[in-house]
Design brief:
Shape: elongated
Structural class: alpha/beta
Strand content: 15-25%
Number of helices: 15
Strand order of the largest sheet: 10-9-8-11-18-17-12-13-16-14-15
Largest sheet: 11 strands, mixed
Number of strands: 18
Helix content: 25-40%
Length: 470
């Protein structure tokens, strides 16, 4: 069986190499490269691994470790020029500028001088980025191999990084230092919908009031060994009444937040949007998922994937403003808003591209405030700097979005669920635009998701207190 040459590593011996010979390597820095280098080296300098810190630093974004570039030089020396059998003797490098995520380095190693007595080579090393700017230069001295070596190239396993528990704690930390808020939980009559608010109580996020058939709630608690000691229960007959009672408590300010239990979403939302007894405001209701994705450097807000089925242009103004306001509450001063479509160019054949362009212009005219908008952007261009640069998109939003605005509920729901189930994203969901924050999760969601959603509701409730305080 013939094996392609690319599947082998073959060296160049001392005698084969002449002064002026060179080799090149081209590599693009990706977020995973930074994480892997930090894990391997132990270098967790926040300039490299903490997006929030990096935004306020010298470079305004996460940058790669300087020594990451030097390892590319080492890669050439060890695998190609001279290759297997090479012994490193010394290296001196100067670092001229940072390497950001999405930057592409071209690394060139050139033989400057040969020493016959000990088979040493003096090599010039140069790394330039995609703009032709010098990033690293210097020299390396190696002992070159004298015997020919050709070996099969070893295929390395793919490295995946995800500390779910750490990410979960980080998600809950958005509410650090805040007192628990009272939340009415509508119809918590299955294990996860009951465990969620009780977990949130243990985490110091909320003080839950359970609204539903008391006998069913206590039966679930007994079966799941959940502690209801000190928890108030408002007894109801059925799910519709549970929704109505919970909404009434929010309307009368008896509670500061609302949470969906095991009832259907439309049962709860029918009570919420009631003109006479509901919780509507002048702002259109919309839903936001907060997603912590292990392969993305900071949290993502995805809207609207649960309330507005086919939002109009006017609806999207409210949806975007709701999301921007939430981002402000979570500490983002000027969130980057990517308005998604299937393509990144405006075309009359796709309505969402025209609306994206209109929304960006509306933001320019102050009709949408507090965020930096760009669109239309395809999903890859919105979240991948590499994809954006490859397509020549120059934008402060592209590749670094904080908020993803989807064209409709179907696409948004698919994006959110794919991130959760295929990318191991941690999700939290909340409804905005009502008198109180509403924790709205799927009946399939775990208690972990419900607890994280309570953290958002707690932050929102405290912000609302500040707004209405005389």
């Amino acid at each position: 069986m013939h094996t392609p040459a690319a599947h082998f590593i073959e060296n160049k011996t001392f005698d084969e190499i002449q002064v002026g010979d060179h080799a090149q390597l081209v590599r693009t820095l990706r977020p995973g490269d930074i994480h892997l280098f930090a894990l391997m080296s132990g270098d967790v300098n926040p300039t490299h691994v903490d997006p929030e810190f990096a935004r306020s630093g010298q470079f305004r974004e996460v940058v790669g470790h300087s020594m990451w570039g030097s390892t590319l030089i080492s890669s050439i020396l060890g695998t190609e020029f001279p290759g297997p059998g090479t012994v490193y003797v010394s290296q001196g490098l100067s670092f001229w500028r940072p390497v950001g995520v999405g930057d592409t380095l071209t690394v060139t190693v050139t033989c400057r001088q040969k020493f016959e007595h000990n088979h040493h080579l003096l090599l010039d090393c140069l790394c330039i980025n995609q703009d032709g700017l010098k990033v690293i230069d210097g020299t390396a001295e190696v002992q070159a191999p004298t015997e020919k070596i050709k070996r099969p190239r070893v295929d390395l396993p793919e490295a995946v990084f995800s500390d779910r528990e750490l990410r979960y704690r980080h998600l809950l930390s958005i509410a650090d230092g805040l007192a628990p808020v009272q939340i009415a939980v509508a119809h918590p009559c299955d294990a996860e919908s009951l465990r969620g608010p009780l977990q949130a109580r243990e985490a110091g996020l909320v003080d839950p009031i359970l609204v539903g058939p008391e006998d069913r709630i206590r039966a679930v608690a007994e079966e799941e060994e959940l502690d209801l000691n000190g928890v108030r229960i408002v007894n109801t007959i059925h799910s519709v009444q549970s929704a109505e009672f919970a909404v009434a408590m929010a309307r009368s300010l008896e509670v500061e937040a609302l949470m969906k239990g095991s009832l259907h979403t439309d049962e709860l939302m029918s009570a919420v949007v009631s003109k006479e007894r509901g919780l509507r405001t002048a702002r259109r209701l919309s839903h936001v998922f907060l997603a912590d994705v292990p392969t993305y450097p900071h949290p993502l807000l995805i809207t609207d994937a649960a309330i507005n089925i086919e939002p109009t242009l006017d609806d999207k103004v409210h949806i975007i403003q709701n999301a921007i306001d939430l981002a402000h509450m979570l500490g983002l001063k000027e969130p980057k808003v990517a308005i998604l479509s299937a393509v990144e160019t405006v075309t009359s054949k796709i309505r969402s591209t025209i609306e994206a362009a209109a929304l960006c212009k509306m933001a320019d005219r102050g009709q949408i405030k507090g965020g930096l908008l760009d669109g239309p952007l395809a999903f890859d261009n919105a979240i991948s700097i590499v994809a954006a640069k490859t397509k020549g998109i120059r934008s402060a939003v592209a590749g670094n979005a904080d908020i993803l605005v989807v064209p409709d509920l179907e696409s948004g729901n698919m994006v959110a669920k794919q991130l959760e189930y295929l990318a191991d994203a941690l999700m939290a969901g909340v409804v905005l635009g009502a008198r109180v924050p509403i924790v709205l999760t799927s009946r399939a969601d775990t208690a972990e998701t419900r607890t994280a959603s309570c953290a958002i509701a707690q932050v929102m409730a405290h912000k609302r207190r500040e707004e209405i305080r005389p």
